[in-house]
């Protein structure tokens, strides 16, 4: 028994230093999160910012991608990861990613409807104008005042956020330089926005801007409304507008975002050709 006692004491003495050396976890910080005061919403709103590596020391100015559904529990980590990948491997320019979180998506991202069924199902819907004012009057000025931006801006969103992107492009095209709409929910309100696109396009200036459209193998009202929008774009000659429509028939609504966002980064933030 005495021999067993000393053996156990020896094991404990050997294990103690190892236990003492167990590393403590440290948080991984990939960005900055703000509770942005909003007069428009009467409270604070979540906004997240990813800065390119070396931002603090570079002294450079950067383009800004504004990401809808950009909360930490939404698409911020996904899209900022794509930006980081492009920077690390040198395939895209450095860009600041600003994620604007959604709280009530149908309230903030959908335009008003008179469809009684939609109103009954989503009674808070249809306040996209208010959310656009929040972006224009509170989010953009905050970012431009706090960070070194170069004036180049883009707006990206998927699904209902894609609907908001298209509506903003049609109704307030001067707000951003580029627009990326992935599988936009143009079916909303029976495709009314797509049908009215021609009337909005008539009022567009020839200021340079870019529109990137894509959709998965979704069919039905989604595809029908997209076809109407694309038809209207083809009917109006807008010298300043560079727009692309690339369907992704091998992707679903649930799988399309990653590849589409990666391609959008490569399109919008392509590195200049070597001289």
Automatic annotation (TrEMBL):
Pfam families: Esterase. The keyword Signal applies. One of its GO terms (molecular function) is hydrolase activity. Residues 1-20 form the signal peptide. Keywords: Hydrolase, Signal. SUPFAM superfamilies: alpha/beta-Hydrolases. InterPro entries: AB_hydrolase_fold, Esterase-like, Mycobacterial_A85_antigen. Coiled coil: none annotated. PANTHER family: ENTEROCHELIN ESTERASE-RELATED, FERRI-BACILLIBACTIN ESTERASE BESA. This is Alpha/beta hydrolase.
